Amino acid sequence: MRLLKRIIFALYSRISNLIRNGYLRSIDFKIQTSISVYYRIIGYWEKMNRVDFYSKMTLEDLGLNAEEARHYGGSRSYELAKVVKRLNLPSDSSVLDFGCGKGAALYAFSKFPFKGICGIELSDIAYEIAVENVKNLSLEKRIQVILGDARSLKKELDSFNVFYFYNPFPPDVMKTVVQNVIDSLKNKNRDGYLIYNYPIDSVVIENFNQIKFMFQYVPFFFGGAIKVYKYNKV
Predict the structure, then answer these.
(1) Which of 68, 94, 108, 161 fits 80 for a cystine, CB–CB 3.0-4.6 Å?
(2) Which of 118, 113, 108, 119 minimizes the C-alpha distance to 90?
(3) DSSP H stretches of helix in the chain
(4) What does the DSSP 8-state code read for residue 70?
(5) Three-state secondary structure call for residue 231
(6) Among 205, 116, 121, which residue's Cα sits nearest to residue 162?
(7) What is the model's pTM?
(8) What is the DSSP string of 99-138?
(9) For 178-197, what is each residue's pLDDT tens digit?
(10) 3-class state of residue 47 by DSSP
(11) What are phi and psi of 163, to 5 degrees?
């Protein structure tokens, strides 16, 4: 695993140097090269560890519909690492991933000393893959995966102070889930953090006056953004 990381960083540094020195002038070439290299290496790593985080799944593949969920895409570990490090979270923090899919973000969070790491997934197909991934990585003691509807979680939210979303829901579902999070934070009077990856419906969160925008992280190669918000206890 350490060797693989060194290879990834070496390739990343090499491409970055070529870009800075003007050898790679085509934006399309830069983007396609970085994406191709990244996912090729990830593919090797997945085969070595008998996991599947990054193969895409449509709503039809997941057995879901557009009124309750969005298609699956795996979170990239290095992007989440950048965000978590910048947050400088309390030492007793626990994180909940809404719509965790096959568990890519859960694995990324396992690299940090979270007290608890949990994901909830509506699709039984993605849930079973996530459970198998956790097992094959020997992370059963650190990661919990729940099969269920994120809207049903209420008192269960009291155990967490960090909430992660990778564009998992359409606006109506997102609104309900965020309201439940706010209610939990308010009832237990604690600070809370919302991390929203690929935030196409960020207005849903921003319409809640209790939640304040903290910062945004924009990946260099892949585009998109991760927005981070905070609920401050009274």
Answers:
(1) 108
(2) 113
(3) 2-20, 27-49, 59-62, 77-87, 104-109, 124-136, 171-187, 202-206
(4) -
(5) strand
(6) 116
(7) 0.85
(8) T-TTSHHHHHHTTS--SEEEEEES-HHHHHHHHHHHHHTT
(9) 999 999 999 999 999 999 99
(10) helix
(11) -125, 125
Q: Which residue bears the tokens 């020997």? A: 138
Amino acid making up residue 66: A
Whose CA is closest to 42, among 2, 76, 6, 79? 76
**Could you tell me how far CA 27 lies from the centroid of its own chain?**
26
Measured from the Cβ of residue 190, the count of other Cβ atoms closer than 10 Å reads: 15
Residue 224 has pLDDT above 90, yes or no: no
Dist CA 96 CA 62 (whole Å) = 21
CA distance 211 to 121: 24
- The residues near 48 (Cβ < 8 Å, ≥ 6 apart) are none
Q: Are 63 and 123 in contact (CB under 8 A)?
A: yes
Nearest-angstrom CA–CA distance, 151 and 214: 25
In sequence order, the β-bridge partners of residue 194 are 163, 229
Where exactly are the structural domains of the chain? 1-49, 61-231
